[in-house]
Amino acid sequence: MLRAHLPKPLLDADRDAFWPKLLNYLEVHHENSNRGPCRHFLPMPFEPPCYAPEFFFDAGVLSIVRGVMDDRVVADQWGCDVPLKGSGYQQFHADYQRPLFTEAPDLPLPAYMLNVSFSLAPITGANGPMEIAAGTHRMPRNEALRRIESAEIEVRAIPLEIGDVLIRHPWALHRGTPNGTEAPRPLVSVRYVRRWYADSSREVNSIPPAVWRSLNTDLQSVMRFPVGE
Ligand SMILES: O=C(O)CCC(=O)C(=O)O
């Protein structure tokens, strides 16, 4: 966790620009939530100020992400998780669909993806903090679930202030918790993966050509997203 890391004015500008788009999305999709009852995932726009380079190329974040993986990591997801009033507890889960080697699903492997998340509104016990079962990325799934069930493993709720950055291993079991407030709870995330890994597991938006051209070739090489016409 990097506390008070990202500049608040950037996040305020992001929220102000994103909020009408979010409300519009929720109005259209309220009958078909895609992450459980009253819980949505939507791809984030790449139009500034919903997008800012600081969200992808922050030196402190990149040094951690590259230190855990390698210097050639790419960002391949940019999205927002939004529980609403009426949402419940998700099942504990990991954020990958298939093991890398299906014949050895519990093979201990170095990390090849990391999620970097920050909130566009304070996340407290009231509006549904994510809960993470620490250390479970290093355990066979069944054992991790059994140890969570028997309370042998601590499950931590992760409240976030504006500017806090959560860097997590997506294999660590986690779940969304209920948002008991009237306001949507927006947690935005960038996923970084090793360059050779691809799974297209979440919808993404295209980068507008003007935003793409604003990046030098080094920065472009970190962004694995479609570029718009
Ligand atoms: O939004 C959250 O707090 C967690 C959501 C989540 O883990 C999911 O939908 O897979």
Feature tags:
229 residues; alpha+beta; Jelly Rolls; five-stranded antiparallel sheet; three-stranded antiparallel sheet; 18% strand; globular; binds 2-oxoglutaric acid
Protein architecture, described:
Helix content is 24%, strand content 18%. It is built from 6 helices and 8 strands; from the N terminus they run αβααβββαββββαα. A 5-stranded antiparallel beta sheet has the order 1-2-8-3-6, with helices on one face. The chain has a 3-stranded antiparallel beta sheet with strand order 5-4-7, with no helix packed on it. It starts with 7 loop residues before the first helix and ends in a 9-residue tail after the last helix. The site of 2-oxoglutaric acid has 9 residues, from strand 2.
Which compounds are bound in this model?
A: 2-oxoglutaric acid
Helix content: 10-25%
Rg, alpha carbons: 17 Å
CATH topology: Jelly Rolls
H-E string = HEHHEEEHEEEEHH
Biggest β-sheet, characterized?
A: 5 strands, antiparallel
> What proportion strand?
15-25%
Short description:
By secondary structure, the chain is α+β, with helices and mostly antiparallel strands. Helices cover 24% and strands 18% of the residues.
List the helices and strands and how they pair.
Layout: H1 8-29, E1 39-43, H2 53-57, H3 59-68, E2 74-83, E3 113-119, E4 130-133, H4 141-149, E5 155-158, E6 166-168, E7 174-175, E8 187-193, H5 209-213, H6 217-220
Antiparallel strand pairs: 1-2, 2-8, 3-6, 3-8, 4-5, 4-7
The protein binds 2-oxoglutaric acid.
2-oxoglutaric acid binds at residues 35, 41, 81, 83, 90, 130, 174, 176, 187.
